[in-house]
Amino acid sequence: MAITASGALTLTAVQNEWGGSNPIGMSEYYAGGDNVFSGATDGDGNAIPSTGAIDMSDFYDTTAATPITISSSTNNYNIKTAVQNAGAGLDVPVLLTINSGVTVGSTSTSTPAMKTDTGWSQGVSITITNNGSIVGASGSNTSSNPGSGGGNGGGSSPHPNVGGTHPAGQAGSGNSGSAGSSNNGGNAFEHSQTANDYLSVVFAVAGTRTGGSAGTATFKGNGGGGGAGGSAGAPSNSGFFVGTGSGGGGGAKGGSGGIAYPGHAQFSNSRFGRPGGTTTGGAGGSEYDNGPANAGKGGTGGSLQQAGASGQGGSPGFGRGASSGGAAGSTGTSNGQAGSATAGNTGQIS
Q: What's the pLDDT tens digit per position in 81-136?
């Protein structure tokens, strides 16, 4: 309780606030002495003398505690550092006020928005009047790519005149995992002195104390393989095919490209589907142009989280249809944990 700011003031009132022994003498109350901490001031910021003349009037509107006011928004607030910067020691009670509209936040989930730090003497208390907000840092949203598992592109083998088929692209593999520390929210207030119970923290006004929100870890699914192209039909309804469809591209990540029927006259590397890349699907094999009858090109492999494209059908009307692309692999998600409003030696927080 602060000494009155005006009116009658007695030595007893000074002793009741600052301590001391009887008989009472003003020499007991120099700043930096046994009873008054170094750097102590009155309510107007006037310093209590440490030497020379000292008068009763020097003690109007003073308190035997370190008053600290946070008047503008800030991050990573360390109460110990603030007290020492004010010229006071860690053996003096602290009266900390957070003004209305002020937010004490954090720049990292590993650092609380506000903490006591350590090294406080036995019996010290920190009284906080929180008219603003203490808010922990939010967890990060992260995204990771799969290591492998893209769907393989569809191919055509053997030649359709001897029973060959045009298989669809394969589905990509799913991906999953667990959230990591970067997805967890940070704490709002931390009582750091856990080695002993010397320090008590009292929220005279709790105000808003909010742990940081949790982030989400996303594990991207693989892309599906592209479908094989359709074979070309003969110009008349002869039941024969004059060109095999090209292979579909592989899905990301790393799906194999489909092949066009090897050993046939139209066999060419350009008609192979290309393998899937790290994040994007491979291109389908090129179209085979046999004059009036064209074999279709392979479908493009799916990029991460995407299905492969269908191949192109053969022509003319008696050509065999192309196959479909493979489905995308499932994408997994995992949420981190929200931060706490209070952490550390919570048994000493009230």
A: 999 998 888 988 999 999 999 999 999 999 999 999 999 999 899 999 999 999 99
The C-alpha atoms of residue 92 and residue 97 are separated, in whole angstroms, by 16
Q: Give residue-wise pLDDT tens across range 259-290.
A: 876 655 455 677 888 999 999 999 998 877 76
Residue at 343: amino acid letter: A
Contacts of 7 (CB under 8 A, 6+ apart): none
Residues 339 and 109: beta-carbon distance below 8 Å: yes
Cα dihedral 110/116/122/123 (nearest 10): -140
Alpha-carbon distance of 182 to 141, in angstroms, equals 8
For 101-123, give one letter per residue: b (16+ CB within 10 A) or e: ebbbbbeebebbbbbbbeebeee
The b/e string for 129-157 (b: 16+ C-beta within 10 A; e otherwise) is bbebbbbbbbbbebeeebeebbbbbbbbb
What are the CA-CA distances from residue 183 to residues 112, 145, 334, 336 (Å)? 15, 17, 9, 5
Residues in the chain: 350
pTM: 0.76
Provide the pLDDT for residue 288: 74
In this structure, how many other beta carbons lie within 10 angstroms of the beta carbon of residue 331? 17
For residue 101, the one-letter residue type is G
pLDDT at 67 over 80: yes
Six token digits for residue 195 = 């080695």
- Judge whether 188 and 339 are in contact, CB under 8 Å: yes
Task: Report how far residue 311's alpha carbon sits from residue 322's, in angstroms, rounded to the nearest whole number.
Answer: 5
Nearest one of 324, 302, 146, 285 to 224, comparing CA atoms = 302
Give the long-range contacts of residues 23-26, CB within 8 A, separation 24 or more: 26/54, 26/55, 26/56
